[in-house]
């Protein structure tokens, strides 16, 4: 059969789709990603993290059912977080879908009785061939009041180090030069395997894999941050000076209600220590605006935090009330337009910060990897930028460059979220 994968949501879903695709390819099926061609099957990998993500997933299901009605696809299957969380409801409301599969039922989809997402290193890459995501664990042991992830993905399960090293080597054999380590929480990796955190040891083993030129870390939980990973980052030049730590808020009262642990002072101290240990590191974070108990003063405290900390990369989510979470009983009292105004205020401030930080790079020579060629520029990234979510470097087309290769460029101009460069 011809099978088309459509993946919504986060990079962890991308990896899941690639692993499922590999199982089906081994059975002789032809695999496509995000194709508009007619196919026998569409497998839609969905997201259910917040309300907007659920709406997007349902809308895409409807699009594919319309394609099925027009005979552009024969069967539509739905997997991922929405299928996991809302299978019964979906079966009742959209029975035209040919099958909904929870994570436990994926073995039925691929026809392999012992199939487990975390127990294979075989993948069909849907990303450009020079970079890939490496999912090191699944699930989360934290009980943040606003978050439905533990309800969807269950407790943390870590993928053993030998499997991850084998997967990284296979990725290199496919041409991958950069990997992004991802999980619901990187920093608690290995506790379920050995009773202690093993991220630093995993980083050391991945640092020995020949052919990996860049390795970056996404989604580290701030409380009890494992500072030993910074020493590994300094010891292995493959590790990008880049770290993604979702902070969510800075108000002590809101952090307590969110069940995040720690305090505002802990967060300020942690950030200072990270920047002192790894000079020049780019810190990415995400924040939640409009949490049910957030006052005007607490919003201003969050704004002041952004001003003081000057994150290199930052995103903001408007609070989404999620069924069965601990915060659900708090209601959703803050009006949507107030949430939007607060989100916009923070993002406008961050745009100004990003503009200033980028302008400071003008005149510098930097190493970039080229991701794609468009009509006017080659589009690349520095070690401080992850694909799809961070800044880009737009390189003049004065001479031909090769996609997936590294180059030294000189920064000649800056905007808030782009750098303009020429070959050094």
Describe it for me?
The chain has 424 residues and is an alpha/beta fold. 35% of the residues lie in helices and 24% in strands. It contains 13 helices and 18 strands. The protein has helices at residues 11-25, 51-69, 81-93, 106-110, 149-153, 161-173, 191-194, 199-206, 228-235, 252-258, 264-277, 296-309, 336-359; strands at residues 2-7, 30-33, 39-46, 73-80, 99-100, 131-135, 137-138, 157-158, 178-182, 214-217, 239-244, 282-289, 313-318, 365-373, 377-381, 392-396, 406-414, 418-423. It has a 6-stranded parallel sheet. Strands 2-1-3-4-5 form a 5-stranded parallel sheet, sandwiched between helices. Helix 8 (199-206) packs parallel to helix 9 (228-235) and helix 12 runs parallel beside helix 13. The chain is globular, with a radius of gyration of 22 Å. It starts with a strand and ends with a strand. The relative contact order is 0.08.
């Amino acid at each position: 059969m011809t099978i088309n994968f459509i993946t919504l949501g986060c990079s962890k879903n991308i990896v899941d789709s690639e692993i499922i695709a590999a199982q089906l390819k081994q059975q002789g099926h032809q695999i496509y990603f995000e194709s508009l061609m007619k196919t026998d099957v569409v497998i839609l990998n969905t997201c259910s993290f917040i309300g907007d993500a659920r709406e997007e997933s349902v809308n895409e299901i409807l699009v594919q059912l319309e394609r099925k009605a027009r005979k552009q696809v024969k069967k539509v299957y739905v997997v991922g977080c929405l299928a996991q969380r809302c299978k019964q409801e979906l079966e009742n409301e959209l029975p035209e879908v040919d099958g909904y599969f929870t994570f436990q039922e994926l073995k039925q989809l691929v026809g392999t009785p012992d199939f487990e997402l975390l127990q294979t290193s075989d993948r069909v890459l849907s990303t450009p061939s020079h970079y890939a995501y490496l999912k090191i664990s699944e699930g989360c042991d934290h009980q943040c009041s606003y978050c439905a992830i533990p309800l969807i993905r269950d407790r943390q399960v870590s993928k053993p180090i030998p499997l991850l090293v084998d997967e990284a080597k296979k990725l290199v054999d496919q041409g991958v030069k950069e990997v992004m380590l991802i999980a619901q929480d990187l920093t608690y990796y290995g506790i379920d395997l050995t009773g202690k955190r093993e991220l630093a040891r995993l980083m050391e083993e991945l640092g020995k894999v020949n052919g990996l030129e860049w390795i970056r870390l996404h989604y580290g939980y701030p409380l009890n941050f494992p500072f030993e990973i910074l020493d590994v980052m300094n010891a292995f030049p493959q590790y990008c000076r880049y770290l993604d730590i979702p902070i969510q808020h800075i108000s002590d009262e809101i952090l307590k209600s969110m069940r995040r642990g720690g305090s505002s002072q802990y967060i300020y101290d942690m950030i200072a220590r990270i920047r002192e240990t790894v000079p020049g590191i780019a810190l990415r974070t995400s924040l939640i605006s409009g949490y049910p108990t957030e006052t005007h003063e607490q919003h201003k405290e969050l704004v002041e935090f952004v001003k003081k900390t000057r994150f290199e990369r930052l995103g903001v989510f408007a609070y989404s009330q999620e069924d069965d979470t601990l915060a659900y009983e708090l209601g959703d009292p803050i009006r949507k337009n107030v949430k939007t105004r607060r989100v916009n205020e923070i993002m406008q401030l961050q745009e100004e910060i990003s503009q200033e930080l980028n302008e400071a790079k003008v005149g510098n020579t930097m190493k970039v990897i080229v991701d794609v060629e468009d009509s006017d520029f080659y589009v690349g990234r520095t070690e401080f930028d992850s694909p799809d979510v961070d800044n880009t470097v737009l390189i003049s087309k004065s001479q031909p460059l090769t996609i997936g290769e590294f180059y030294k460029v000189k920064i000649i101009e800056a905007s808030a979220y782009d750098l303009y460069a020429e070959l050094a």
